[in-house]
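S.,

Sequence below, as promised.
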Amino acid sequence: MKMVSTNTLYLCFITLIFTGLIINIGRSLYLAYTQKDFILSHLENCKLVKRWAFMNRVGPWGRMVFIGTVSGLLASPRIQIILGEANAEDIENFPKKLKQALITLQRTTRWLVVSLIALTVAQKLNFFEFLAHGQSSKASYGIATTLPIENSDPTHSIRFWVFIIDICGLLFFLSAASYIIYKKLDELLSHLKNCRAITKLSSLRNEGLQGKLMLLGQISSLIIFPNRRVLSGDADIQDIKNFPPSLRRLITTLYTMLWILLIVLLGLIFSLRR
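The prediction came back faster than expected:
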């Protein structure tokens, strides 16, 4: 594969993504200007929607944020219902045709934004040049290269491998977190049975991986930073003190690991702007 073909492929993907985003922006603005009152009337008991309704007075961008909030709620309503931010009856009675349009808008926009970020990072890390160089080496020598391009800026090589290591670290974190929520979640909840902040969210365990991860996040923040919850009466001081040290160390290690990986990733993305 020649370099021109990788550039052409990159430009084709970018063009498709931007075309999709422009179409979704147009759809969002159309719904915001024509269906705002209709949406508010059908979700009048949803705290989340009422809280963000003021964005309709902030111009086109504010209206798009409002539509994004509504579509996100309709796409994943059960967790918001458990958190007390949405009304189950309002969600159930929402017009099906408009609901499906908003859900499709939300999901396609998510994928387009994620694809745009991934392609931008790949381009900044010279990943496409790496692929082209690997294909060229394979054609010339019968093997594919395993290193970034030789003669390129050495900082690109460093960024490339830092990015790969960071992504591997995030995957390891997700694996460890998944092990905890599927093997240790019941034990964690049993040690915090007197903490209102956790018991009122315990039904999140039935909402798939996303709900379990949110519940684990709440448990982690309570164990690591308990003072505010204890003072507000949402946590029991004895439950916090008697929490098993081994589980406390595990949760603290994972929490610290996540923040380090995210800070490194944000630093890497910021460095790509130079």
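The radius of gyration is 24 Å.

Coffee later?
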